[in-house]
Design brief:
There is one protein chain. By secondary structure, this protein is α/β, with parallel strands linked by helices. The protein folds into two domains: about 300 residues, 3-Layer(aba) Sandwich (Rossmann fold), CATH 3.40.50; about 130 residues, no CATH class. It has 16 helices and 16 strands. The strands form three sheets. Strands 1-2-3-7-4-9-10-13-16-15-14 form an eleven-stranded mixed beta sheet, with helices on both faces. A three-stranded mixed beta sheet has the order 8-12-11. It has a two-stranded antiparallel ribbon with strand order 5-6. The relative contact order is 0.14. Belongs to the peptidase S10 family. One of its GO terms (molecular function) is acyltransferase activity, transferring groups other than amino-acyl groups. Keywords: Carboxypeptidase, Disulfide bond, Glycoprotein, Hydrolase, Protease, Secreted, Signal.
């Protein structure tokens, strides 16, 4: 009887088989082979395209997937969502933690030049950028009724997208999966995470390997967020001690829903004092006229003591900031319809923000073809934030979602750029404390590049609050190195 061993050990055979299956799994039609404006070699594979989530309506959500530059088969898959509601996740791709830094084109209509971003989050993770809901970015529907939506429908649609996306990319199904986002994605992320967990419990296929979530400068709770501005403004020296004491006495700490005319008068004075500031980063200028935009990156009007605090390691300037304001500072979210931007021009539809470079690139026909996006006559012009949707905040406070998820063992990282006045860190710090979990890592500085990069406090059930010193609303835009540092450590389960 023969006793010879197989030529290939069983483990090697399985490894080769899995590699073969993996190499054949990702849809080749979605592969991005080149990008206008970039002349080098991609450090990893890129895929993009549409997932149809409702055949009858022709509802399609657009994604751009950047494979990890490190270990794609084992590194986490992270879904990234920008907020708004109504803002494209290409905001994160172009301006924050995508694989490229964008340099403005030589002519007014010229395409930007793309350079590799050494602080891209694809250094340590597979990252999936999603335009959601339908009507945002490149995502669209053949039935315009889908452009009337809200928190709960958006979460359901995004969950449906994920199930279908992982069917297209089954080789990533076993990877740890995380959901991340910023701003109004403070609502998108926990509501979607809840849908994912509910789907896992119900046996939805495929089974997602969900491991936790990340929220940056996120809208969370109308009372906590609405009451955050006054303490922030006082702590930053934007209003006087006298005014702070007067408004506190007049409003009894209830700034979000003032109960007296006297309180309203004092709050109006607070608004008047901070009105000229860039709400997304109080360290950055916010000018009234576009003809003096070019001085915004020089920080010539900032005091010397602020200059280093506001510095960034990005080799190219962050996007130009222009004068403007977002929704009322004391009430960023109210029950019911959420303010969008119909009163603003399409060329600059986010206050204080000039998205000209991203718009020029993403509305170029050759770029759209390269990333498999529908042409303008189908999906419409790309705008950083759209006025095409009517969006309802119908999920209420996110605190109950955070409690549900963290109590079930899913880690949560809540981070805040500490110079953001749109969703101030004071509100995020207050609501994380209000959850009632025991402090297990008392308030302390965290380090990046041997420097204090911010402060953190850790709670039981793996709830972590983190500030990033000198950063604004879009943390990776202002502090890319520090952002990659805390992101990498947290994904790996290491202390920050």
């Amino acid at each position: 009887m023969s006793t010879h061993k197989p030529i290939f050990p069983k483990t090697l055979f399985i490894y080769l088989l899995l590699n073969f299956l993996s190499s054949e799994s990702a849809p080749e039609s979605a592969l991005v082979t080149q990008l206008p404006g970039f002349t080098g070699t991609f450090p990893s594979k890129h895929y993009s395209g549409y997932v149809t989530i409702d055949e009858s309506h022709g509802k399609k959500l657009f994604y751009y997937f950047v494979v990890s530059e490190s270990n794609p088969s084992e590194d986490p898959v992270v879904l990234w969502l920008n907020g708004g509601p109504g803002c494209s996740s290409f905001d994160g791709f172009v301006y924050e933690h995508g694989p490229f830094n964008f340099e403005k084109g030589e002519s007014q209509d010229g395409l930007p030049k793309l350079h590799l971003n050494q602080y891209s989050w694809s250094k340590v993770s597979n990252i999936l950028y999603l335009d959601s809901p339908a009507g945002v970015g490149f995502s669209y529907s053949g039935n315009t009724s889908d452009y009337i939506t809200g928190d709960l429908k958006t979460a359901s649609d995004s969950h449906n997208f994920l199930l279908k996306w992982f069917e297209l990319y089954p080789e990533f199904l076993s990877n740890p999966f995380f959901i991340a986002g910023e701003s109004y994605a403070g609502v998108y992320v926990p509501t979607l995470a809840y849908e994912v967990v509910k789907g896992i419990d119900a046996g939805a296929k495929p089974i997602l390997n969900f491991k936790g979530y990340i929220v940056g400068n996120g809208v969370t709770d109308e009372v906590f967020d609405g009451n955050a501005l006054v303490p922030f403004a006082h702590g930053m020296g934007l209003i006087s001690d006298d005014l702070y004491e007067e408004v506190n006495a007049a409003c009894n700490g209830n700034y979000y829903n003032p109960l007296s005319d006297y309180c309203e008068i004092k709050l109006a004075k607070v608004d008047e004092d901070v009105e000229g500031l860039n709400i997304y980063d109080i360290l950055e200028p916010c000018y009234h006229a576009p003809e003096i935009r070019e001085v915004t990156t020089k920080k010539t009007r900032l005091p010397d003591s602020f200059r280093k605090l506001g510095e960034t390691e990005r080799p190219l300037p962050v996007r130009v900031r222009m004068f403007g304001r977002a929704w009322p500072l004391r009430a960023p979210v109210r029950e019911g319809i959420v303010p969008t931007w119909p009163q603003l021009s399409q060329s600059n539809n986010v206050p204080c923000t000039d998205d000209e470079m991203a718009s020029t690139w993403l509305n170029n026909e050759s770029v759209r073809k390269a990333i498999h996006a529908e042409q303008t006559n189908v999906s419409g012009a790309w705008n950083l934030c759209t006025d095409r949707i009517s969006f309802y905040h119908d999920a209420g406070s996110m605190i109950k979602y955070h409690k549900n998820l963290t109590s079930r063992g899913f880690p949560a990282l809540i981070f805040s750029g500490d110079h953001d006045m749109c969703v101030p860190y004071t509100g995020s710090e207050a609501w994380t404390r209000s959850v009632g979990y025991k402090v297990i890592d008392e308030w302390r500085p965290w380090m990046s590049n041997n420097q204090v990069a911010g402060y953190t406090q850790g709670y039981e059930n793996n709830l972590t609050f983190l500030t990033i010193k000198g950063a604004g609303h879009t943390v990776p835009e202002y502090k890319p190195k520090e952002a990659l540092d805390f992101y990498s450590r947290w994904l790996q389960g290491k202390p920050i």
